[in-house]
Amino acid sequence: xxxxxxxxxxxxxxxxxxxxxxxxxxxxxxxxxxxxxxxxxxxxxxxxxxxxxxxxxxxxxxxxxxxxxxxxxxxxxxxxxxxxxxxxxxxxxxxxxxxxxxxxxxxxxxxxxxx
Length: 115
Description:
This protein is mostly beta strands. The protein has strands spanning 3-6, 9-12, 17-23, 32-38, 45-51, 56-58, 66-71, 76-81, 90-97, 102-105, 109-114.
């Protein structure tokens, strides 16, 4: 499967952005799709994922501010990011993964939040 991400940009603190990630085919039922991010000099960290069941998981740092959703027909996942903070700055990568393996990574999209 190939992933195409879009939607990054530059925004002031408190602003919003929406990221999109479209898969080239339907995601298998035992996989989840979502986002990681990597800030300069830091390790890549999980941000949010959505299961094929529709259940979601978020990192503590984005709970209440970010919302992940999906369009099943379009094989697309969205990450609505509200209340952005400078510490949200980084390259955001979408991926498809299971508990045991990563199926695919998309290209990164830069998110920059200015203070």
